[in-house]
Amino acid sequence: xxxxxxxxxxxxxxxxxxxxxxxxxxxxxxxxxxxxxxxxxxxxxxxxxxxxxxxxxxxxxxxxxxxxxxxxxxxxxxxxxxxxxxxxxxxxxxxxxxxxxxxxxxxxxxxxxxxxxxxxxxxxxxxxxxxxxxxxxxxxxxxxxxxxxxxxxxxxxxxxxxxxxxxxxxxxxxxxxxxxxxxxxxxxxxxxxxxxxxxxxxxxxxxxxxxxxxxxxxxxxxxxxxxxxxxxxxxxxxxxxxxxxxxxxxxxxxxxxxxxxxxxxxxxxxxxxxxxxxxxxxxxxxxxxxx
Length: 291
Ligand SMILES: [Zn+2]
What we know:
The protein is an alpha/beta fold. The protein has helices at about 85-95, 150-170, 190-195, 210-215, 240-250, 255-265, 280-290; strands at about 1-5, 10, 15-20, 35-40, 45, 50, 55-60, 65-70, 100-110, 120, 125-130, 170-175, 175-180, 200-205, 220-230. The protein has a single domain, classed as Rossmann fold, CATH 3.40.50.1580. It is built from seven helices and 15 strands.
């Protein structure tokens, strides 16, 4: 069973893993003995341009049933294509592949005194003051941002992250506000202080727009982030060498946490994420049905 793109066919897949460019984890899914690669690093042309390279693999879930998964690093691909076009192209393709559940992982920076390098964070909400690209994939779509991160996936990430944290003698938190920054430069101390006053706990370039494009295509989404450094001004000094060491030593295993959570998800979603897509339209449909 396949869905067509302009330049080829993408295998039908209910699941996707978005790998963070900050951690560069899960270098190749075939590196995990449980994964059987079907299609490796294929780029698709869409109405928004080329996608980043996608790898399709099969994996057996905790109940012994095969799951088809697309793995992708959203920020990979030809730089001239532009980040926004690339991620719109990616979600266009994920929709056509039939993806309904997306697990993500990335690196992040702490903007509070409470989260330290190597901590794992599963955010429950986000602040995005960057330029938005919502509504371009499905023009005119109205999506609710109530509970933007899927509770099913957050719970699976929490259970697997706790095990990881125990093994690595680090910590995991399941409540935090992610604030998106655009990069590629780091933020000033004043910008960090401003985002902290607005309620942010961690900052990074990942998470949005993926979290709201996921809802736009009717898919569940949640993410686990590893703290790689303190943002500017949070501590008197932070060390680029420590960031590099965490990326090289520990962060590569974060992809394994995402994969563990994916195979542990219940076969049928128990959340209400799907009902939060087009809530206005659904409300109008209900109102019409009552007339
Ligand atoms: Zn959900």
